[in-house]
Each structure stands twice: as structure tokens, then as C-alpha cells.
């Protein structure tokens, strides 16, 4: 009996397992490291496949599994085997197709074939721009297949988890960053690996792994900047570009002519491993700048990336060149310079944006009908940070200008994410006390108090709604509680009962969300809240 090399694909799987197949009488024997599997040929469908129809594909009609081989000699065994007439006819059709395919393929490639000759004639000198262009226009599903394969391989020898408190912290920050992406082509997943090494990496398609020592060393702004950098690698498609460049011209052509994401990813399998996730200086810089902007728009301080690098250099002066997070990137001095320049540019752009006109009463009343297009909440949070810096440096005129703009923006678009800016805006009251009459200051304090209450209420509703799982038989229930200055919830009770099941679900939701974000100081916590749960949630 002859043995043929093949790959076994589970139903809908992107990557197969290497197996050996043998044909004996009416049975196909599939052998890998486990017990051999016998499949009745009557339960197989045989057909041509592959990007150029040079693969024999045998599909198990009972399980959906596919056995794929390019060894044409198996067709001789299949057409000689003691098999049903229907299968024999399929096998003969495939065998005939394999003999006639070269001529057919030459005719069908047409312009594509001519293009390949042109590329070959130009030579490898332009491989980089060609592969980079191709990578930029490939469907993201190819990267997803590649990334999952890389992660699966890595997880066989490394412990990855996503349920610990460290993993939840990474996911919370990472999710906030992803929510601020302008275009979302990837489903990002975040994992944590126990390790004393300080590092993080991303596979193609959006799997991001952070090592626990980095999480331990970084504050939220620093961790956000590292995650934003890795997200930058993903959305700029650096791994795919590097893989195509390293694969060479032939494999690149196989990828662009593949008929499915799985086939394209399979052509690149083995070219990307976690140990090989290395990028050139331009790619690292691109990921840095993409990450800086993403952190800025998400409300994190992008300068924290520079602070983190300096902190690591000071803490590990003898080994800083061996730290992956440092050595795999451009030289820290150069890196700090262009990151700082980018941060200053973002700050100038935000500060010099056209002033928002003061909202009229009619405009405020119509907010619910037509929302004002404000900058992302993260940009406003960073503007508050800039204003605070001006305030503490006694640059009151600059601070006052930014605080005034923040107040107008928040009134026009009271986003729940803006909850954190109101402690900063209290500095605005302090400044105005030296410039305005008491009635104007009192009005300002009232505006801030009312707006802070509105934003915090929206935040509470958003938080509860994200956790609320109403019972099948829903009746409305009102719960009462107080929010303390540190965000903890006390005095929780049912004020207006629904069904016992609904009462318990509402109480459980509030407990699950405790503690809440700290209320703005201007609200003078504790804050008494009555909250209604029904099919949705209301405040």
C-alpha cells in the first residue's frame, strides 16, 4: 500500500493537521499521531481545489472534515479501489481534470498571468512596495486565520489567561482603546501571560498578549500606551506585510490568487511565529505614532509612553538593552523625541480648534434631537489635563480659555465618559472668582453642578445597562441607594417592588457594578439615587 502526505481540516477550520492517508479496497485510512481513522469511500466526496485547482480534496460527508493532498498518484488508487460507482465517477472526473488543468489554467489566468510576468521581469527590487500594497488590500479574515494559528502554537508552551484581575485590567483599558478606533476591522482579544519579562506583543488579526511583569510596572496611562502601540501594529498590518516580504515573490503570488482566506493563510503558515514578531524601525515608529494618537483620543496621557521607557531604563540600567520592550524598538532617545513632537502637535491642534459658540436655550433643548459633533471624549479629557497644567503653573488665562471650551462642549454633548473632567472644571470657578461678580460665579457653579449631575446619571445608566440581564418575565422595579465619595454603594434596597425574580436581578446588577466611578466633588456626595429597572433601564 502506498502512503500519501495530506492535511486534515476540521469543518470550517483555517489550518489543518499533517496526516498520512492510504487507500485500501473501499476504505481511506487517515493516520496521524493518534489512532488511525477509517472512512468509507462511499462517505467521501472528491473534487479539485486549491488556488490553481491542483489539490485533491476529499470531504467526509458525515463530519464535514476535508483531506487535502497534492499527490496526484492517489487518484490511481482511488480509481482502482473497490468503490461505489458514484465515487468512482468523481475520482475519474478529478483525474481527467488534473490532466487537462494546465492548459485551462493558462487560459484562465489571462491578464493576471501577464501581470506576474511583468512583476518577475521587474525583479525582487520592488518586492517590498508590491507586497506592502498587496497586504494593505487583503481582507482582514486572512490575518485572523494567521493570528489564531500563531496564538494556538504559542499557547501550547505558554500559559495564557484572560480571567484574572490583571487580565480584566488589560481588557478594560484595551477595550476602551478599541472603542475609539475610527475603523474597526478586527475583533481584538486580550490575554495575560505570567512572566518576569517586561513585554507585550500582538499577532495578526488582533490577539494581544501582555506579560504580567509589565502590567505590574505600568500605571494605567503607561499600560494604555503599550496596548495602543500593539494595536497600531495590528491595524497597520505590520505582521502580514513582514510575512509577505519574507515569503518572497512565489508565495506572495500564491496568497493573492488564493480562493479563500483559509487557503491564503495556509500559504503563509509557518512564516510568522511569536519569536519572529520583529519589525523594522519604520514600522515601530508607525506603531508608536498610531498608538500615541489612539491613546490621546481615548483619554490617556500619550506622554506616559516616554515616562515608562525612562522608568524602565532607570530601574534596569545594566540590562535595559536586553529588555524586549526597549530593545525591539527604535533607540529610546530618538523615540522620545518624535513621540514628544507628536504629542505637542495633538495638543496644539486641540487647543487651536475653532471655539464652540455658547449654547442657546433653544439649542440646549434640542440636543436630544440633534447631537453636537464634539471631539472624542478622550480629547476633552486630555484638554482638561492641559488646562490643569496651565492652572498649576499660574497661567490662568490659558487655563480659563480651555475650561470654558470644555464646559461648552460638555453642555452640547454630555457624554458619560466626561465624568472625570468636572473636578478639573472646579478650578474654573476659582479663576472666575477673581474676574467676575458673585452672581456670575454662582451661575457658573450652578451650571457645573447641574451638568455634572446629568453626566454622572448618564454614566450610572450606561454602567447598569451593560450588566442588566432582565428575567424572562419582566416587571419594573425601583431600587434606592447612595453613592459615597469613593464610588461605593451603600443603603441598597428595593423601593418599589416588582416580582421577586426581578427584585433580585436588579439588586444583583447594582452590587455587580459597585464600586462606581467616583462622583464629581461638586455633587457633594453621598448622592441619593432611585433607579428603575425594566426591560431596559431608566433613571
Describe the structure concisely.
The protein has 20 helices and 14 strands. The protein has 539 residues and is of the alpha+beta class.
Fold and architecture overview:
The chain is of the alpha+beta class and 539 residues long. The chain has 4 domains: 4-99, Pleckstrin-homology domain (PH domain)/Phosphotyrosine-binding domain (PTB) (PH-domain like, Roll), CATH 2.30.29; 140-319, no CATH class; 361-460, Serine Threonine Protein Phosphatase 5, Tetratricopeptide repeat (Alpha Horseshoe); 468-538, no CATH class. The chain contains 20 helices and 14 strands. The chain has helices at residues 74-80, 85-122, 127-136, 140-155, 165-179, 212-217, 220-235, 238-247, 249-256, 261-267, 281-297, 304-315, 324-327, 332-351, 361-365, 377-392, 396-412, 422-433, 438-467, 500-513, and strands spanning 4-9, 17-24, 27-31, 37-40, 44-49, 55-60, 66-69, 189-193, 200-202, 207-211, 477-483, 489-496, 527-533, 537-538. The protein has a 7-stranded antiparallel beta sheet with strand order 4-3-2-1-7-6-5. Strands 12-11-13-14 form a 4-stranded antiparallel beta sheet, covered by helices on one side. Strand 11 and strand 12 (489-496) form a beta hairpin. Helix 16 runs antiparallel to helix 17 and helix 18 packs antiparallel against helix 19. The radius of gyration is 30 Å and the shape is elongated. The chain starts with a strand and ends with a strand.
Which properties best describe this structure?
4 domains; PH-domain like; alpha+beta; 539 residues; Serine Threonine Protein Phosphatase 5, Tetratricopeptide repeat; 20 helices; seven-stranded antiparallel sheet
Amino acid at each position: 500500500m502506498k502512503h500519501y502526505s495530506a492535511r486534515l481540516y476540521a469543518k470550517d477550520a483555517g489550518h489543518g493537521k499533517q496526516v498520512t492517508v492510504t487507500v485500501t479496497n473501499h476504505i481511506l485510512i487517515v493516520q496521524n499521531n493518534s489512532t488511525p481513522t477509517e472512512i468509507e469511500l462511499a462517505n467521501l466526496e472528491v473534487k479539485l481545489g486549491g488556488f490553481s485547482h491542483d489539490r485533491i480534496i476529499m470531504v467526509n460527508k458525515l463530519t464535514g472534515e476535508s483531506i487535502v493532498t497534492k499527490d496526484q498518484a492517489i487518484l490511481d488508487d482511488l480509481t482502482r479501489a473497490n468503490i461505489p460507482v458514484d465515487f468512482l465517477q468523481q475520482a475519474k472526473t478529478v483525474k481527467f481534470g488534473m490532466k487537462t488543468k494546465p492548459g485551462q489554467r493558462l487560459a484562465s489566468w489571462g491578464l493576471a498571468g501577464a501581470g506576474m510576468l511583468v512583476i518577475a521581469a521587474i525583479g525582487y527590487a520592488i518586492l517590498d512596495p508590491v507586497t506592502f500594497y498587496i497586504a494593505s488590500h487583503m481582507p482582514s479574515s486572512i490575518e485572523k486565520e494567521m493570528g489564531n494559528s500563531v496564538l494556538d502554537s504559542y499557547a501550547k508552551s505558554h500559559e495564557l489567561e484572560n480571567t484574572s484581575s490583571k487580565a480584566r485590567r488589560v481588557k478594560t483599558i484595551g477595550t476602551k482603546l478599541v472603542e475609539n478606533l475610527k475603523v474597526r476591522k478586527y475583533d481584538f482579544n486580550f490575554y495575560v501571560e505570567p512572566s518576569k519579562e517586561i513585554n507585550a506583543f500582538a499577532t495578526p488579526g488582533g490577539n494581544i498578549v501582555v506579560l504580567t511583569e509589565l502590567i505590574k510596572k505600568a500605571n494605567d496611562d503607561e499600560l494604555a500606551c503599550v496596548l495602543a502601540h500593539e494595536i497600531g501594529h495590528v491595524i497597520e498590518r505590520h505582521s502580514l506585510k513582514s510575512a509577505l516580504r519574507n515569503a518572497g515573490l512565489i508565495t506572495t503570488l500564491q496568497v493573492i490568487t488564493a480562493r479563500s482566506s483559509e487557503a491564503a493563510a495556509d500559504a503563509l503558515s509557518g512564516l510568522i511565529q511569536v519569536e519572529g514578531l520583529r519589525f523594522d524601525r519604520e514600522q515601530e515608529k508607525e506603531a508608536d505614532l498610531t498608538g500615541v494618537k489612539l491613546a490621546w483620543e481615548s483619554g490617556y496621557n500619550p506622554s506616559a509612553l516616554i515616562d515608562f521607557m525612562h522608568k524602565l531604563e532607570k530601574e534596569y540600567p545594566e540590562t535595559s538593552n536586553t529588555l524586549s520592550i526597549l530593545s525591539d524598538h527604535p533607540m529610546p532617545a530618538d523615540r522620545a523625541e518624535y513621540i514628544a513632537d507628536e504629542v505637542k502637535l495633538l495638543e496644539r491642534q486641540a487647543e487651536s480648534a475653532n471655539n464652540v459658540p455658547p449654547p442657546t436655550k433653544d439649542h440646549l433643548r434640542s440636543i436630544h434631537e440633534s447631537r453636537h459633533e464634539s471631539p472624542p471624549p478622550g480629547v476633552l479629557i486630555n484638554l482638561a489635563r492641559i488646562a490643569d497644567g496651565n492652572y498649576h503653573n499660574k497661567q490662568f488665562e490659558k487655563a480659563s480659555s480651555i475650561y470654558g471650551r470644555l464646559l461648552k462642549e460638555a453642555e452640547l454633548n454630555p457624554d458619560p465618559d466626561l465624568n472625570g473632567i468636572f473636578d478639573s472644571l472646579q478650578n474654573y470657578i476659582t479663576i472666575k472668582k477673581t474676574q467676575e461678580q458673585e452672581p456670575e460665579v454662582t451661575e457658573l457653579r450652578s451650571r457645573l453642578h447641574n451638568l455634572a449631575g446629568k453626566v454622572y446619571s448618564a454614566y450610572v445608566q450606561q454602567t447598569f445597562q451593560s450588566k442588566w440581564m432582565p428575567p424572562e418575565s419582566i416587571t419594573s422595579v425601583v431600587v434606592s441607594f447612595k453613592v459615597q465619595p469613593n464610588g461605593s454603594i451603600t443603603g441598597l434596597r428595593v423601593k418599589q417592588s416588582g416580582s421577586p425574580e426581578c427584585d433580585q436581578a436588579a439588586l444583583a446588577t447594582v452590587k455587580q457594578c459597585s464600586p462606581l466611578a467616583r462622583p464629581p466633588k461638586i455633587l457633594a456626595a453621598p448622592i441619593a439615587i432611585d433607579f428603575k429597572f425594566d426591560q431596559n433601564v431608566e433613571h
